[in-house]
Write a structure and sequence with these properties.
Low-confidence stretches: none
Strand order of the largest sheet: 1-2
Strand content: 15-25%
Helix content: 25-40%
Number of strands: 2
Number of helices: 3
Radius of gyration: 14 Å
Largest sheet: 2 strands, antiparallel
Shape: globular
Distance between the termini: 18 Å
Structural class: alpha+beta
Length: 94
């Protein structure tokens, strides 16, 4: 998880919190997605695989929540992660 985070975002973090599991398509597949949040501590270079084409963009949490609520983020796992993380920040738990 931490290695993948660094490779794909260039960040390292602290205070990792397990946000649980997500079943993206129950009844269709047995895939399980494990969700974690952390505080980004450092920002560096990415290290994508040859077949990965990603564009990393820093988005403030308040804006990300707005994007979820305005249907600008359609990916379900990202929606869940953003909303759970925002709630933990609001409660002072992250």
């Amino acid at each position: 998880m931490k290695r993948e985070q660094q490779e794909e975002t260039g960040t390292t973090g602290t205070n990792y919190v397990n946000l649980g599991q997500l079943y993206p398509s129950p009844g269709y597949t047995n895939e399980i997605i494990y969700l974690y949040a952390c505080r980004a501590e450092s920002f560096g270079d990415t290290d994508f695989d040859d077949d990965e084409f990603l564009e990393v963009e820093r988005i403030p949490m308040e804006k990300a929540v707005g994007m979820v609520m305005n249907n600008e983020i359609a990916d379900s796992k990202t929606q869940v992660l953003v909303l759970k993380t925002a709630q933990l920040l609001k409660e002072g738990r992250l």
